[in-house]
Amino acid sequence: MARHFLAVLAVALALSQAASAKSWLDKRFNTDGTVRTGYDASGQEVVMLNLNQQSGAAGFNSKEQFLYGEFSIQMKLIPGNSAGTVSCFYLSSGDDNWRDEIDMEFMGNSSGHPVVLNTNVWANGDGKKEHQFDLWFDPAAAYHTYTIIWNPENILFKVDNLFIRSFKRFGGLAYPSSKPMRLHATLWDGSYWATEKGRIPINWSNAPFIVSYRNFYANACVSGGACHAGSGRWMNKQLDGAEWGTVKWADRSYMRYNYCDDGYRFPQGLPAECSRY
């Protein structure tokens, strides 16, 4: 009994300490839509984005702008039928026609089918660089860590401890290198696009749809300011042989779509970088 009491007391103390601390959400982000916060049993702050037909999209957006960095967050996605929803973790310089953007977008699906992770890179308003993967685990059953590394030579996408994509910089081709970007996390209705090319829309009877975020991390260069200590670790990051092996494994086993294989989309010829990888 005493041991049980001490365990409960420890959890309560952790929650109290966490609640009294300045939250990473309030300190670093502005919010839109229905955004709620709480704490898990370990005392970590959990940010929950809530989507229903009345509330519309929800999200949080960084107060600072960044030029290169390593960004990661843990997410627990929508359980059950999430068709038509899109949950995002991404960087963007804005919403103009010349924006730069680096996307990790989770495209909801019907119960029992894989959630699709769409990765994409935009430079000077040119996107259409998608690699899409069926996730090899249930992303609603537990938290998983999603990471973007952006440096002058390549953009790396990572799921938990596995690198799944490298978008390399090639001379003469557009690459996000000069426009500061804000970090965003959003949940929205993507019925026109997200699930089987829009064939399956959101079923609002399943609402509210909730995505949970925790354990946000950023080591980045703030626009107009200095880079954080330890930036060399990601600023010079290139994949080694073993890490390229996990990229090839993801391509071989779980890739659903590669823009470099889509001749129908590019009738005038595939993008130039496709022949350089």
UniProtKB/TrEMBL annotation:
<feature type="domain" description="GH16">
    <location>
        <begin position="20"/>
        <end position="213"/>
    </location>
</feature>
<dbReference type="GO" id="GO:0071555">
    <property type="term" value="P:cell wall organization"/>
</dbReference>
<keyword id="KW-0808">Transferase</keyword>
<keyword id="KW-0134">Cell wall</keyword>
<dbReference type="GO" id="GO:0042546">
    <property type="term" value="P:cell wall biogenesis"/>
</dbReference>
<dbReference type="GO" id="GO:0048046">
    <property type="term" value="C:apoplast"/>
</dbReference>
<dbReference type="InterPro" id="IPR044791">
    <property type="entry name" value="Beta-glucanase/XTH"/>
</dbReference>
<dbReference type="InterPro" id="IPR010713">
    <property type="entry name" value="XET_C"/>
</dbReference>
<feature type="glycosylation site" description="N-linked (GlcNAc...) asparagine">
    <location>
        <position position="109"/>
    </location>
</feature>
<keyword id="KW-0964">Secreted</keyword>
<feature type="active site" description="Nucleophile">
    <location>
        <position position="101"/>
    </location>
</feature>
<dbReference type="Pfam" id="PF06955">
    <property type="entry name" value="XET_C"/>
</dbReference>
<dbReference type="InterPro" id="IPR000757">
    <property type="entry name" value="Beta-glucanase-like"/>
</dbReference>
<keyword id="KW-0732">Signal</keyword>
<dbReference type="GO" id="GO:0010411">
    <property type="term" value="P:xyloglucan metabolic process"/>
</dbReference>
<comment type="similarity">
    <text>Belongs to the glycosyl hydrolase 16 family.</text>
</comment>
<dbReference type="Pfam" id="PF00722">
    <property type="entry name" value="Glyco_hydro_16"/>
</dbReference>
<keyword id="KW-0326">Glycosidase</keyword>
<dbReference type="GO" id="GO:0016762">
    <property type="term" value="F:xyloglucan:xyloglucosyl transferase activity"/>
</dbReference>
<keyword id="KW-0378">Hydrolase</keyword>
<dbReference type="InterPro" id="IPR016455">
    <property type="entry name" value="XTH"/>
</dbReference>
<protein>
    <recommendedName>
        <fullName>Xyloglucan endotransglucosylase/hydrolase</fullName>
        <ecNumber>2.4.1.207</ecNumber>
    </recommendedName>
</protein>
<comment type="function">
    <text>Catalyzes xyloglucan endohydrolysis (XEH) and/or endotransglycosylation (XET). Cleaves and religates xyloglucan polymers, an essential constituent of the primary cell wall, and thereby participates in cell wall construction of growing tissues.</text>
</comment>
<keyword id="KW-0052">Apoplast</keyword>
<keyword id="KW-1015">Disulfide bond</keyword>
<feature type="active site" description="Proton donor">
    <location>
        <position position="105"/>
    </location>
</feature>
<dbReference type="InterPro" id="IPR008264">
    <property type="entry name" value="Beta_glucanase"/>
</dbReference>
<dbReference type="InterPro" id="IPR013320">
    <property type="entry name" value="ConA-like_dom_sf"/>
</dbReference>
<keyword id="KW-0961">Cell wall biogenesis/degradation</keyword>
<feature type="signal peptide">
    <location>
        <begin position="1"/>
        <end position="21"/>
    </location>
</feature>
<dbReference type="GO" id="GO:0004553">
    <property type="term" value="F:hydrolase activity, hydrolyzing O-glycosyl compounds"/>
</dbReference>
